[in-house]
Amino acid sequence: SAAVGLDLASRFQESLVCYQEGIDLLLQVVKATKDEAKKHRYRQKISELLFFSDGKYHKQIRIEENATGFGYEKLFQEYLTEIVSEVWVEDPYIRHVHQASRYSLYNFLRFCEMLVKGPCKVKTIHLLTSYDEGNGRSQQISGLEEIQQSLRNYGVTLNIAFSSSIHDREIRFNNGWMIKIGRGLDYFKKPQGRFSIGYCDFDLRPCHETTVDVFHTKHTKKM
User: Where is the MITD1 C-terminal phospholipase D-like domain positioned along the sequence (predicted)?
Assistant: First the structure.
């Protein structure tokens, strides 16, 4: 925690010392622990710290078919620190709600609601997506404009851009975290009915199988 704080303040040398101290401490704990499950967790954390201290942090989460417990808050919360003020969303399929039985606009709205709730103080969201093909384009644009206007009431600016060549799906925060989800924000299955468990609470909504890759991008020029 202290190391991340120093990192975000660009005091990388001091943060590196904190990471090394944390690794040494965890190594001592591993040696003193007989519980194999705890040993495994501690070794996993050591591995993460080693990646981070080398500037090559990468964590992968596998969401299995029909898995639950992967609402946006659960997935993103640990990366949404208080200093996050700007967010970039690249997803080609933020489209009309009926397109291919997807709820993409509602998913994006739910993602925005999470950002508004905090604890981060988001002021600007950049969305890069592609136009809906066919008759859904006008509904897509009007839906995004409605989200844009609603966010304005909360002091948040939504910048919308369209690209016909976009294919990557990634979300970036200005504290250096980048999350790539194989299916983008649209990894939830269609609810069984309007009054079924999981319709309102996305933590209870079954998911499609997908992979989530988390990176820290302090050494890239992407930001």
Answer: 69-216
